[in-house]
Design a protein that fits this description.
7 helices; six-stranded mixed sheet; single chain; globular; alpha/beta; five-stranded mixed sheet
């Protein structure tokens, strides 16, 4: 079986937000009458990217949020609901890559799990590089197909003027790297399965599964789900793959899990 060589999970600080955006769960984000006067909990929403090194090239999976988030998100109002306010200067993606000694010219592919503002926020960094940008064909169709500047969390400023290669279906992309169709959060959300020699299989769910509480079982949806039926189907698809491969699941925005992972630049998976 083909394997990748190395995976580096790159922590990029955190947004904060009302938990309800991420988890529609009675007793957690939906309260009973004895707690009806309590404010909804605000939680950390960590952001990460992943660098995958293979014999046939380096992949950057997602690009996190931009340094100019407050100004760029201003027209959308998203900065009021998802402020990227728990990030230090050394946690922005460009700083992280510098700490890792990885130049933009070393990255062969930038794969966007989907094109929301907190995943495609630094895609423009790669505009004049040799990196090939990749997303799902349905994601590109939607992201470039609506009128106006933004639609929900899709913000054209993040990705306009960029050329995207597209994939569809479950795709063996590079040795040890498989892209998995997991729509529901958006029409073209993907997850990434990576097989490593020592660490085995890892699945990076992106926003197909926000956090361990979302995964369950039972699966728990969120306020930001484009298609609920697809969301449930995608979670169970990932669960099936995990059961078959004994994969380590890395969720999209899990504030507890992010601190339990081996994190770049100090550590990695092989």
């Amino acid at each position: 079986m083909a394997t990748a060589n190395k995976v580096s999970v790159i922590p990029c600080g955190a947004m904060t937000a009302d938990l309800t955006w991420l988890l529609l769960k009675p007793g957690r984000s939906i309260v009973d009458r004895s707690h009806k006067n309590n404010p909804a909990p605000w939680v950390d929403v960590p952001s990460h990217c992943v660098l995958v090194e293979t014999d046939e090239g380096k992949i950057l999976w997602d690009t996190s949020c931009p340094r100019d988030w407050e100004e760029r998100w201003g027209p959308t109002g998203l900065q009021e609901f998802f402020p990227y306010d728990k990030v230090s200067d050394d946690e922005y993606l460009d700083s992280r890559l510098n700490q890792m000694g990885v130049g933009l010219d070393e990255i062969d592919y930038v794969i966007l799990s989907h094109l929301h503002f907190d995943h495609a926020g630094n895609a423009q960094m790669f505009k004049n590089t040799n990196a090939k940008l990749v997303c799902h064909e349905k994601e590109r169709e939607f992201a470039f197909g609506f009128g106006g500047l933004f639609n929900g969390a899709h913000l054209k400023t993040d990705y306009e003027g960029l050329d995207f290669q597209t994939v569809s279906g479950d795709t063996e992309f590079l040795p040890g790297v498989k892209l998995i169709e997991t729509p529901g959060h958006t029409v073209g959300t993907m997850s990434m399965q990576v097989t490593l020699p020592d660490s085995g299989t890892m699945i990076f769910t992106s926003d197909a599964v926000y956090m361990g509480e979302s995964y369950g079982p039972p699966a728990t949806p969120a306020a930001i789900v484009n298609n609920l039926e697809q969301f449930y189907a995608s979670v169970e698809k990932l669960r099936g793959i995990q059961e078959d491969t004994n994969a380590t699941m890395v969720f999209g925005h899990d504030a507890e899990q992010i601190h339990q992972l081996r994190l770049a630049p100090e550590s990695s998976y092989t």
